[in-house]
Design a protein that fits this description.
- By secondary structure, this protein is of the alpha/beta class.
- It folds into two domains: 91 residues, no CATH class; 203 residues, Rossmann fold (3-Layer(aba) Sandwich), CATH 3.40.50.
- The protein has a seven-stranded mixed sheet, sandwiched between helices. A three-stranded mixed sheet has the order 6-8-7.
- Helix 7 links the parallel strand 4 and strand 5.
Length: 297
């Protein structure tokens, strides 16, 4: 074994040890029961080097996890679902909203809803809210619908953009990484999906109390011409990918006549994105908090 290989192995095991040292206590605290904890660990270990042993076949268990309320959630093994769960439960990726409470939102719009775990997190903390969950990828949609069944969530099976059209989504990073930006790389998983506009999904909604945007690079298109609807938004939680930084987002907002303050900004160079929580400045708070009428199917 060369010194370089030995160093790579030590680095790998150091990283794995650190990840599990953080994940296991968080999973244990959040699981309702030992059964839920063990099922979650089995899904997590399916991604590891011993996955062939602990979870040789695909499973989709129903788990009760405190962060998402008492109703079970469904996550799929051998997918990136557990990584999405870990972002919420282990990394506390949405706790900026907890650190900056602004009352009870009534309408939340989730662009890039994936399998609905963030929507479950929202509704657990804001039980009076309604959610519009926009997600284009068909296999994610199936799990999303199961996870929000019976809840005040309107699911929109589409991507979001400036114009209605059909695009080809592609990913090489798993179910949480589908994008409509750029050309597919060799080996990409691809699927054609419709694109809808903010106007079409909002209907007669007077205000969006919270707009969450995680659309893998399409945020540049979305905010490049947002004047018609940005005045309805009170708070923004946006992932900015690649060359489109939070500074770029602020320029687009300013050009649209919207004045927002950045409450928090986290830079993640290893993933090539920045995530920011922004709030409309009081002098620019023209839209009043409103509720989507007849939005929930």
């Amino acid at each position: 074994m060369t010194a370089e290989v030995a160093s790579e192995r030590r680095s790998y095991w150091s990283r794995v040890t650190s990840e599990y040292a953080n994940a296991i206590p968080a999973y244990w605290r959040d699981a309702y029961s030992l059964k839920d904890f063990l099922a979650l660990m089995r899904v997590r270990l399916a991604q590891s080097k011993i996955g062939w042993l602990v979870c040789p076949s695909r499973i989709a268990p129903s788990l009760r996890i405190r962060s998402f309320g008492p109703t079970p959630i469904r996550i799929r093994s051998h997918t990136t679902d557990v990584s999405v769960l870990g972002e919420i439960v282990v990394s506390k990726g949405y706790d900026a909203l907890v650190r900056h409470p602004r009352g009870q939102p009534r309408l939340i719009v989730d662009l890039g809803a994936n399998i609905g775990l963030v929507d479950r997190w929202f509704l657990t903390r804001y039980p009076g809210a309604e959610v519009i969950a926009v997600e284009p990828e068909p296999t994610n949609l199936e799990t999303l619908k199961a996870n929000v069944a019976g809840l005040p969530v309107k699911v929109v099976p589409a991507a979001i953009g400036l114009t209605e059209r059909t695009v080809r989504l592609h990913t090489v990073t798993g179910e949480h990484g589908f994008t409509m930006v750029g050309e597919p790389q060799p080996g990409s998983t691809c699927v054609e999906v419709p694109v809808v506009t903010m106007k079409s999904i909002l209907g007669d909604a007077e205000a969006i109390d919270l707009l969450k945007v995680d659309i893998e690079g399409a945020e540049e298109e979305l905010f490049s011409d947002c004047r018609d609807w940005i005045g309805k938004v009170q708070m923004l939680l946006v992932e900015c990918h690649g060359h489109y930084k939070v500074a770029s987002l602020l320029k687009d907002l300013e050009r649209a006549g919207a004045d927002f303050t950045v409450l928090e900004c986290e830079v993640k160079p290893e993933w090539d994105f920045e995530v920011a929580l922004l709030e409309r400045k009081p002098a620019d708070a023209g839209a009043r908090s409103g509720k989507l009428k007849d939005a929930v199917a």
